[in-house]
Amino acid sequence: MTEPGAHDRIISVFKPMENAIGLAYSHATGDLTFATLSASARALAAQIASVQPGDRSPVMIFGHKDRRFLIAYWACLLTGRAAVPNEPDLPPRRLAGVASVTGSTLLIDAQPDGHDAPIGLTDLVLPVPLLTTAPGITHPPIRAADQDTAYILFSTGTTGEPKGIEVTYANLADFVGWMDQMGSDIGNPGCISANVRYCFDVSLFEMWLSWLNLKPMSGLDHGDIWNIGTYLAQFSADDLSIWVSTPTLAAHYVRHQGFCSDTLPALKAMIFCGEVLPKALVRTLFARFPGIRIFNTYGPTECTVAVTCVEITQAHLDADRELPIGSARHGTWLSADADTTGQGEIIIHGTSVGKGYLGASEEQNARFIAPHSYRTGDWGMQDAKGDWYFKGRRDREIKLDGHRIDLNTVEAAIRDCRDVRDVIVAPPEEGSRMGGLRAFVLGIATTEALERLANEAADRLPPHIIPRFWYAQEDCVFNASGKLDRKQVQADMLARGVRHIHTAARKTTAEKAMAIKSEQDAA
Ligand code: AMP
User: N or C end of the chain: smaller count of CB under 10 Å?
Assistant: First the structure.
């Protein structure tokens, strides 16, 4: 008899779902009960085991937010194979790249009825069954070893070719243990958002909190993000209790006055990940949802979703620095070779660190400096109490007119100014004769407000690092992960945004009066 391992831990979450009564998923294209989820996943797993006996290659799941995706995901786990989520909006060339890098022999079509699945990428394409009762003959779960891959998520490497991030069953079981803990800390979670696309690992917060607590997820398709009213009506009807997203998505919702406790009275916790959490957003959320608990989590996909967490308090908001990203979860620790400023590159160690990259160059794989250590490329520091602070990406230092400028510092100062939802600071436009940093600001609608902001920033920053060119717009643009699409937002603002040129010699009213008087005196 072998010791229970990571795969057993995963299967132990599945078993109670088979006896659970009620909804597992609420979605416009069809709801899913726990009974249907577990019976259909078992049936699909049995089918896979019988048509591909002994095949352990990764399985491509092709789908978006339909309930079939969750069934397909569990069928992969029950057969001990790696799940590889693929969104239908991926270009065919990219899909072919994923199939070739992973060596997948099976694609599960998890789209709603009436959509074509890509054929020819894998030996076999299977649809997802929807059964209300468990099939007579099922297959016992096929055990995976701790170091077998549980899922692979793709990001674009520097070469533009897909780079697969491999996360093992041991990594996943460790994350599931953390989610169990987080569920108890929040206390009796109810319905959980399904805001995040399944190709982005922040969705694992939503899925595992739902499955561990036998509570439904509620979501719409990503394309419905702009229908905030529809979303709110669904969340309200489903008694949403836990919200998970990037800060950018929540900042988008905040623009709707209905995003408040009157509409969502059951909402008691919000979990953020993936981007800097701005203080202004947290202040607004505390005001809109009195008593809400807000958690900031941080981590790269390479280290199984997230590795640090902190509950944000009023003291954090009042402190004269950015919000912390918290301390490491159990089994993981962080280090940084701090320079004289106390900052250094964050290195993550421990059970959360994934296996490595598939299809990546040796240079990219060198980020995994030891079997359980990953060099993040993020800049950070730890305070005396043990909380970590994110200081931006390592590679954002530029040289301008002889000055070394860290674009992260400029962004952090502007982000702290009034009305700013987020900001991107970019180096001078290439070939521009006028030079000067460029600031792209979200949340500002008029040139006057932009000018006020530039002046406010000028009061906080040394003159040589104040951006000269300012652009703004109210709307954000999301990438596939629901993060701010930094490239697109800059392009949009250059094309359509409001603009302002900041000139260094700003004078106070008194200084202006003095200057006029001395001119008059001289005349
Ligand atoms: P991804 O692998 O797409 O989840 O991106 C991981 C990267 O997002 C990290 O390496 C950080 O640069 C950034 N990130 C994740 N969480 C946070 C956070 N809470 N605050 C600031 N940046 C974050």
Answer: N
